[in-house]
Backbone:
């Protein structure tokens, strides 16, 4: 019998062997056959053996398959499925793929893959990768070019390249990215992220307004000469603002008893802000900004400006940056001027470090990089900061048109015959160069200015040429220089500033038709240098070159010292020499100032002396350390040649008002040899404010810009409510005048609040006691506090056999549909469900429950819900006594006395 197979899958090419039994070879014959095969192989050359057993070199697997089986091998179709993508072992998503038996022939959707890798691979590399996709968006992995630091083909065996492979066993796509090809991570040293993170932010009211009232009443110790009155005319100042649906307004007014027109309207303007663009529009009596050689003429009209106070958390000045690559996971420490600032722990890859917290001038930045093996490398570089520079691409501007006005005794007087235009525009060309231009013009005058501000290795230099045209023609140039050096060592912390200006005889600023520029050149410089950690010296000088023959060039030189004595005392001493351009006299003088702060910081006393004015002054101050319900006191005594003055003041700040009284006494000579004249008067001041927001009203001390009005729930309307406790005192609290009002809130800055109800009923839920507000311009925000959840339930839970239910968790559900969402709660179930837990003895306490119908249900335990009724008049602790679980039909409750509640099915 010919044996064609020995076990399944093993094919024999020839030979006949007797069978010991069906399906088996005889053991002796098999041993003989193996020995014969070994002997034969020993006589055959190794090369020949390989030639006989290996297929021809030019014969592929398909041809071998066809020769062996007599037919072509059937091509296997790739399988279409979504492969999980892992980047450095971390799964980031799935990519559509056509998986072939040969992993190298697998095709993947490159667009989808690039989308998954966008946070890990540089954009240029991904762009080159997507460009290799076929018409259907797929490409074979074996055909991809994945090398080169720029994303192009590999330049050699050592070139960095992305590795993309398919694991046929796990069916995953594995991507490995070398550090230099990874996406750049942007790390900011100063975290300017949303300051409201972690707070529930309350939106401003749709309509809000406030009005401040300030009074001043003067009483003379002796009656006025003509009137015979001790009381002087009463003055009342009024100002206010508001915001209705994003439109804000400001206004001022005054009551003056001494004029026939008692009431006088002050400036009034309408404002619309666009915070996302940092743009402010104004109409009315304008409050606009100027720059360079411009002058601020009061105007009524229209204005549009880029105002970065609308984006207070944005850095518009160059904040510095540095790029480097981490070869392995490392710790990055940032030190600015020797002070530790920020620590990062980052994976390998490119890093952009930016937004350094520098001070004006040159700052020394050091970056220490420590890898996992403890090896450290250091990067040192300087960083220059100047508040006048604009970062690259940042612009600021103001364009204003209107008519000028002046303030008369009892009204605003408008000059409609002189329409005026005022504008400037500044642009950050690079982080080291800012350019600007300005123009102010009316019918008779035009003033043009330009600005060039740039950074050098020696400091910041500014050049501001200008010219006036029209009624008076002339030119001007201003030069500025400043350099501040900051370092950990005190002797390297020095400052140097210089300024020079030139004015031609005919140059005039806007509004000056007959200029008198007697000084042609005005040069000044100042140098400051610490001499030790507590002593600083400054040297400054100024020189004025005049063009008037009746005057002489003027100059001044000052040498000053400032000494600190611990934390409590400071001494300033300045020596000066100056020459006046008009009197032609040169004087030597000294100025001395000493101040001592007592240990707790609430009291201080000081003494000053100026030999030039022959004045000596002694003062004492007291200020309570808390913001409201605080006292401040002051006493001053001054002596000048022929004049003696003394004053004392007492002030009190409450959260509803501010009040003060000041008494002044002076004695002076009418002439050198004449009699003494006395003047003695007392001034009373009082200020308060009234706020309104969406139907709610409050009384407060004067509002600065925006305000917050606390709105208590009726349940706690009679309880004391405090805001922002400081050293046992509140910034604002409720009283007989109403709820608390916070009046000193700056627009567009995140303002967290801390609410306190010290005498709230036990178990009462006051809601969100740590909200935050982000006000707009002159907005008011309502801050709700408290809910009607005033009850705390107390009881013991037993199983059907009467044993305590230990360490179980459950939920109390509202069943009457009358639940009210808790104040400030984002969860839709707030006020409808309350969690509770039992202790080892089965006792539970559920706090913050509202009156109504409820059901108790243990988590994971199938039992009949336990109905609970909380009466409408219930408040505080409400005992439920003992409650017993009741099993559902067909179920058995099995609870362990030492483990959390569990269930077992019945028979």
Residues:
């Amino acid at each position: 019998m010919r044996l064609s197979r020995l076990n399944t899958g093993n094919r024999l090419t020839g030979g006949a062997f007797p069978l010991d039994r069906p399906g088996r070879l005889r053991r002796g014959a098999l041993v003989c056959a193996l020995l014969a095969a070994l002997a034969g192989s020993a006589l055959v050359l190794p090369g020949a053996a390989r030639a006989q057993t290996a297929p021809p070199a030019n014969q592929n697997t398909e041809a071998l398959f066809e020769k062996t089986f007599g037919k072509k091998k059937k091509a296997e179709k790739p399988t279409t499925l979504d492969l999980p993508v892992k980047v450095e072992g971390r799964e980031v998503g799935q990519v559509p793929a056509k998986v072939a038996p040969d992993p190298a022939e697998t095709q993947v959707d490159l667009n989808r893959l690039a989308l998954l890798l966008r946070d890990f691979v540089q954009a240029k590399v991904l762009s080159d990768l997507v460009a290799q996709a076929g018409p259907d968006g797929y490409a074979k992995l074996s055909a991809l070019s994945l090398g080169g630091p720029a994303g192009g083909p590999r330049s050699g065996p050592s070139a960095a390249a992305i590795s993309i492979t398919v694991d046929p066993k796990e069916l995953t796509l594995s991507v490995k990215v070398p550090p230099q090809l990874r996406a750049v991570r942007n790390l900011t040293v100063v975290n300017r992220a949303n300051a409201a993170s972690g707070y529930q932010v309350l939106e401003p009211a749709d309509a809000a307004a406030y009005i401040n009232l300030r009074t001043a009443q003067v009483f003379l110790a002796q009656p006025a000469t003509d009137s015979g009155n001790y009381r002087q005319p009463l003055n009342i100042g009024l100002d206010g603002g508001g915001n209705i649906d994003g439109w804000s307004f400001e206004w001022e007014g005054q009551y003056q008893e001494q004029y026939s027109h008692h009431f006088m309207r002050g400036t009034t303007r309408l404002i619309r802000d666009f915070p996302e663009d940092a743009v402010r529009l104004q109409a009315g009596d304008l409050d606009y900004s100027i720059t360079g050689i411009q002058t601020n003429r009061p105007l009524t009209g229209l204005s549009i400006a880029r105002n970065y106070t609308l984006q207070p958390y944005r850095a518009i000045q160059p904040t510095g940056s540095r790029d480097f690559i981490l070869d392995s996971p490392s710790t990055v420490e940032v030190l600015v001027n020797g002070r530790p600032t920020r620590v990062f722990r980052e994976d390998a890859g490119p890093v952009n470090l930016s937004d350094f917290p520098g001070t004006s001038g040159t700052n020394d930045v050091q970056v220490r990089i420590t890898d996992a093996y403890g090896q450290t490398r250091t990067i040192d570089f300087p960083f220059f900061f100047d508040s006048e520079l604009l970062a690259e691409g940042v612009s600021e501007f103001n364009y204003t048109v209107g008519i000028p006005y002046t303030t008369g005794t009892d009204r605003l007087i408008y000059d409609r015959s002189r329409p005026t235009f005022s504008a400037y525009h500044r642009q950050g060309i690079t982080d080291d160069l800012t350019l600007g231009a300005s123009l102010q013009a009316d019918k008779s005058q035009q003033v043009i200015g330009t600005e060039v501000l740039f950074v050098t290795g020696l400091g910041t230099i500014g050049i501001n040429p200008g010219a006036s045209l029209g009624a008076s023609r002339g030119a001007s140039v201003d030069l500025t220089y400043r350099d501040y050096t900051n370092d950990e060592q005190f002797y390297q912390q020095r400052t140097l500033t210089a300024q020079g200006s030139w004015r031609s005889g005919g140059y005039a600023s806007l509004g000056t038709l007959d200029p008198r520029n007697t000084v042609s050149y005005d040069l000044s410089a100042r140098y400051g240098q610490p001499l030790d950690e507590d002593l600083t010296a400054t040297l400054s000088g100024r020189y004025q070159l005049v063009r008037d023959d009746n005057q002489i060039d003027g100059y001044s030189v000052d040498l000053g010292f400032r000494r600190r004595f611990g934390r409590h005392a400071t001494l300033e001493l300045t020596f000066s020499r100056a020459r006046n351009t008009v009197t032609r006299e040169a004087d030597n003088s000294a100025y001395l100032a000493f101040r001592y702060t007592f240990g707790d910081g609430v009291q201080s006393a000081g003494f000053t002396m100026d030999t030039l004015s022959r004045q000596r002054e002694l003062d004492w101050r007291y200020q309570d350390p808390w913001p409201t319900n605080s006292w401040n006191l002051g006493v001053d005594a001054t002596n000048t040649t022929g004049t003696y003055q003394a004053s004392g003041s007492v002030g009190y700040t409450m959260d509803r008002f501010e009040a003060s009284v000041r008494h002044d006494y002076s004695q002076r000579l009418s002439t050198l040899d004449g009699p003494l004249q006395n003047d003695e008067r007392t001034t009373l001041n009082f200020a308060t404010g009234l706020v309104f927001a969406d139907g709610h009203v409050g009384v407060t001390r004067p509002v600065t810009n925006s305000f917050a009005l606390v709105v208590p729930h009726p349940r706690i309307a009679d309880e004391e409510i405090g805001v922002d406790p400081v050293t046992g005192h509140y910034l604002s609290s409720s009283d007989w005048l109403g709820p608390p009002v916070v009046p000193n809130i700056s627009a567009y800055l995140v303002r967290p609040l801390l609410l306190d109800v010290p005498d709230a009923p036990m178990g009462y839920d006051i809601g969100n006691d740590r909200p935050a507000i982000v006000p707009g311009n002159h907005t008011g925000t309502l801050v709700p506090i408290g809910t009607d959840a005033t009850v705390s339930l107390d009881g013991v839970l037993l199983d059907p056999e009467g044993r305590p239910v230990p360490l179980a968790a459950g939920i109390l559900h509202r069943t009457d549909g009358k639940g009210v969402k808790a104040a400030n709660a984002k969860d839709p179930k707030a006020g409808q469900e309350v969690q509770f837990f039992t202790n080892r003895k089965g006792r539970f306490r559920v706090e913050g429950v509202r009156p109504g119908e409820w059901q108790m249900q243990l988590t994971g335990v199938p039992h009949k819900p336990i109905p609970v009724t909380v009466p409408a008049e219930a408040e505080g602790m409400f005992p439920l006594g003992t409650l017993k679980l009741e099993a559902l039909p067909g179920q058995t409750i099995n609870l362990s006395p030492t483990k959390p509640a569990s269930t077992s099915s019945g028979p």
Q: What stands out?
A: The mean pLDDT is 84. The first strand starts at residue 19 and ends at 21.
